[in-house]
Amino acid sequence: MTAAARYAALLQWLRSNDADISPKIDLQPSSRGGGYGAFLTEDAVEGELLFTIPRKTCITLADSIEDDACGEGFKALIETAGPGGNTVVMAGFMARERIRSLESQKPGSIVDDSSFGPYLATLPWERGMNNQEHVLYWDNKDIEKYLKGSMCYGEALDLRKEVDVAIRVLNTIVGKSIREFRGDYLDSGFQWPWEKAAQASEEKLKGPPEGLAEAVKGAFVCMLTRAFEDGDGDEEKLVPMLDMLQHSDEPNISHAMRKSDGAVEVRARQDLTAGQELLNQYRSELEETMPYHRFFTRFGFVPGIQEEMTNLFEDKSSIFFAQKAEI
Ligand SMILES: C[S@@+](CC[C@H](N)C(=O)[O-])C[C@H]1O[C@@H](n2cnc3c(N)ncnc32)[C@H](O)[C@@H]1O
After folding, report:
1. Is ipTM beyond 0.85?
2. Ligand 1 — pocket residues by CB below 6 A?
């Protein structure tokens, strides 16, 4: 499917699920590099509602813990891992849904698509999809070659370790569900507790089903680069369309969650003209906890830099390498 067809399917899916999207909005390759973005085809005035995304089309923690097959396992994981477990759980849910969606597209498949199928199809599951760059997609050789000695090295290694552990843990929760819809797992009906325990350890021994490791990695990249909170104790969630907007430290939109129903509203922050790209501020570039090298490890880009990141590492750019004081 071409990118244009994928985004047309996304808009159709959103509208058929009660999203209200202004006809003035068009999805096109971004003017800032790094994949696609959203543009205006006509002027808009300050405060104008550009789109409203209903809660049911967002991927939230609730979707994961209320899942019929894996919800209980996800809840237990959060209880043991604490709040840090939320991202792991959402990555597990998304990965299982992505695999279900791919499975449903195979010729002759009788597997139902994920209810998030058209949205999942627009996400960067692999390096280069939507021009997405991320250290989670690099191989060990490139991590050593480019990042060693840089301020990104430790954080990138920690993140990669976290994802490796998550893949192993998530296999014990979503592995069976994936094997079931693939027809690789036959439910043997009633089981005594000791039989269930034996089956669970057998599952562990089998290792992750095909595609799970890659899908969990992709889901982590999506969470890190496009999940945002709407304030007021809200948890990180994926909001289709809002997550199409590129970052700028001078955003021209604002977004807020509607208290009554959890829908997300996106409005023009100022008068805008036809052709302008809509821009969101992911994190302030002045935040001390988010220096540019951390922007790169988390979001896969450095604001304002269009050059290949690997060139900057080869040149030992001061963005990534601490400079020795001159005498
Ligand atoms: C929330 S998504 C935005 C939509 C994305 N471009 C797409 O095609 O799906 C975030 C990703 O977009 C890219 N991106 C966002 N803002 C950018 C900017 N100012 N410069 C370069 N890339 C940017 C980066 O790859 C980032 O990880």
Report:
1. yes
2. 30, 32-37, 130, 132, 225-226, 243-244, 246-247, 299-301, 303
